Amino acid sequence: MMKSACYTRGPSPTREGRRYGMALVKGFWVGLCCLVLSLASACGTSSSVPPGGGAGFIASDPNVALSTQPPAFTLQILHASDLEASIAAVQDAPRFSAVVNALRPQFPNTVVLSSGDNYIPSPFYNASTDRSLQGRYNLTPGKADIEIINAIGFEAAAFGNHEFDQGTRQIRDLLRPDTDRGYAGARFPYLSANLSFSGTGELASADFAADGQEASSIRGRIAKTAVITVGGQRIGLVGATTTRLAAISSPGPEVRVEGRVDDTDQVSAALIQGFVDQLTAQGINKIILLAHLQQLQNEVSLASQLRNVDIIIAGGSHRVIAKPTDRLRTDLPDTRTGDYPILRSSASGQPVAVVNTGSNYRYVGRLVVSFDANGVIARIDPVSGAYAADDQGVAAVRGTPNPDVVRIANEIGNIIRTKDGRTFGSTTQFLNGLRAEVRTEETNLGNLTADANLAYARTVDPSTVISLKNGGGIRAPIGATTGGGGGEPVRRIPPVANPEAGKQSGQISQLDIETALAFNNGLSLLTVTAEELKQIAEHGVAQTQPGATPGRFPQIGGFAFSFDPSRPPGSRVLSLRVDTPTGRDVVVRNGQVQGDPRRTFRLVTLDFLANGGDDYPFPRLSNPNRVNLAPSSGITFDTPGSEQDALARYLRQIGVFTEPDTPPAQDTRIQNLSARPDTVLQGL
Questions:
Q1: pLDDT, tens only, 166-192
Q2: DSSP labels for 216-260?
Q3: Do residues 327 and 333 lie in contact, with contact meaning Cβ atoms separated by under 8 Å?
Q4: 131 pLDDT tier (thresholds 50, 70, 90)
Q5: Is 77 helix (H, G, I), strand (E, B) or coil?
Q6: Which of these, 338, 289, 339, 287, lies nearest to 314 by C-alpha position?
Q7: What are the phi and psi torsion angles at 103 (to 5°)?
């Protein structure tokens, strides 16, 4: 059905908040309050972008016109992305449920949707395997995450990349119910129009559903599209997943990405349009795209390429977009990096609203939109925006937590709390694992874990001289933040004490390490030539640009390099040296490899990268002489050759870590020449 092309600009969104007191669920949360602050996930956004805009800020297009026809149907969409529960979810998931419970009944036509990454390997995710739960979760990680999502009432989700971190067997086990143990399975479908499954692996035909069916009839199944009927209106849903899935996760050969696959993460508009057209051919004139494309700019760009898509719920970027009047959380703190909603004109000249929220159960996104009789957006209700899921946010909406979410969070919290009492050394500094920084610059936590990997590798092969890992593998800081209220500046401090667990201030615990290095990759040794090392460094900084947070950005040990982000990718590294036991080896000067380009260096990296993860070129090395330092499966915290074990050993060895985190202007291992002069080869 074609939509009318007559629009007018809608009202500027504003929101008035109301504050009410309420008693929150107590128990474990109180004892863990300080710990939650110290380990709030690095997936949350912390950016240098000023509140009103700046580099990377995405503004709504003021020229987009909304329909002048009378509103005929109003829909409230409560949404989230990148829920990725970790330690902070012990408090945030119940509060998120309280906000949803308060907002849902305010409009009769409401849907609750996710744009993917509903879970991620973490202490929270792994706690489902604890035997103290008496087999309720069948010793399967992630089942507690799905039970929380079920209890909140999500009705559909897109596949993100982290759903595939442990392969399709894990997806199968989380989708399917296990009635013997009281596990309901996923009570919502997973959608992705650009993923195809061979049907020859862990997933069977019963795990899939035909496209365009009611979401409530295909719970726990996989499809490309679905429909939700609310208030007598059919709402079409289409899913889309990052095209670089195989490079940043572990889907295996069973999963194929359709359409173009390149560094942009952008999905094929023509491919998505075909599935949109299938829905509109059924007479559906309100379409929502659940897209998990890693960088918010990708969803914004896609909006202008599609026809008859009204709303895009973005995922993967973790960016907080909000109205200027929305109150943001200050415990990391968060920063507004886009308008809510971001308005664009579609390929057919119709308004499209792009929305996103911060990750880790920190915000409930709320879009209240009215459509005219042709299904064109006529009005954005001023109550739309980002609703913080903290104590103040819950009190403002007078929300009550879902009791099942409270129960699950407490069960998981009691398990992971014990890990905070097992300590390994200490730090006098905040260890920076914040997403916006560890993926764009050298950080002290990046240095620490890279050095830890190098130290362990040398116990196996003393000839190892350099270490490289990806910033995207660091999932959280180790430390706490204070201040941020009433104009008080935010301070980053070392880990706080947890008296219940016997942890003293500054001590680094197993829980800290597991949360920061949640994937616990195995380590691999490789031999690289001088020329290959330059190519590897170039790859690491190839996606650096304002507003981007590429997971491939490196954190390194045993060498240093400078790069100019204004130069074309592939020609950005201007200086590089390796610090060998016999002296400093100049590898790159003025962008050119020095000496014999075939001379070699022994390097330790993550097995994920050694396998080509984040598109690193390690599988194409001329003579890698690869040695894996950990088994390919069954890696746990204490597994020798895993990155968590390497960091624990190194902390025991050094005792106290004292290196402060520095801004880019003072970084020495990775020197960004847009922020500082090049001193990598000074004196050489």
A1: 889 999 999 999 887 788 999 999 999
A2: GGSTT-EESEEEEEETTEEEEEEEEE-TTHHHHS---TTEEE-S-
A3: no
A4: low
A5: strand
A6: 289
A7: -85, -35
The DSSP-derived string for 422-435 is: SEEEEESS-B---H
What is the Cα gyration radius of the chain? 24
Whether the Cβ atoms of residue 3 and residue 348 lie closer than 8 Å to each other: yes
CB 616 within 8 A of CB 542: no
CA distance 344 to 591: 41
Q: What would the pLDDT profile of 513-535 be if each residue is shown by its tens digit?
A: 999 999 999 999 999 999 999 99
* pLDDT above 70: residue 138: no
pLDDT reported for residue 53: 53
pLDDT band at 122 (very low <50, low <70, confident <90, very high): confident
Rounded to 5 degrees, what are φ and ψ at 255? -110, 130
User: In whole angstroms, what is the distance from residue 412 CA to residue 431 CA?
Assistant: 25
C-alpha dihedral sign at 589, 595, 601, 607: positive
Q: Please name each of the domains of the chain with its CATH number.
A: 7-413 (3.60.21.10), 422-475+517-672 (3.90.780.10)
Please provide the DSSP assignment of 571-629 as one string: S-EEEEEEEETTEEEEEEETTEE-S-TT-EEEEEEEHHHHTTGGG-SGGG-SS---EES
- Give the angle subtended at the CA of 598 by the CAs of 592 and 601, to the nearest 5°: 95
Cα within 13 Å of Cα(578), Cβ side:
27
Residue 471 to residue 507: CA distance in whole angstroms: 23
CA dihedral for 254, 255, 256, 262, sign (positive or negative) = negative
Residue whose token pair is 């890693």: 294
